[in-house]
Specification:
Helices cover 36% and strands 24% of the residues. The protein has 1 helix and 4 strands; from the N terminus they run E-E-E-E-H. The protein is globular and about 40 Å long.
């Protein structure tokens, strides 16, 4: 059984990912189901997404202060 995770692939822009476990673990390597591109581990993807979210939040907070 494979689980699908909805993440955008930077290579082909597909949002269907796959890995070979019934549940997500931080050490699982996420691979694009469409093109086979390796996105890294679930932990590294979460870290990248958190950094991007923090960068989006910072400019909006600075604009509110002005």
């Amino acid at each position: 059984m494979t689980v699908q995770v909805e993440l955008p692939c930077p290579k082909c822009k597909s949002t269907k990912m796959k890995f070979e476990r019934p549940e997500i673990r931080e050490a699982d390597i996420i691979t694009c189901a469409a093109c086979g591109h390796n996105l890294g581990t679930m932990a590294s993807i979460r870290e990248k997404m958190n950094k991007a979210y923090q960068q989006l939040k910072r400019p909006s907070a600075a604009r509110k202060l002005q």
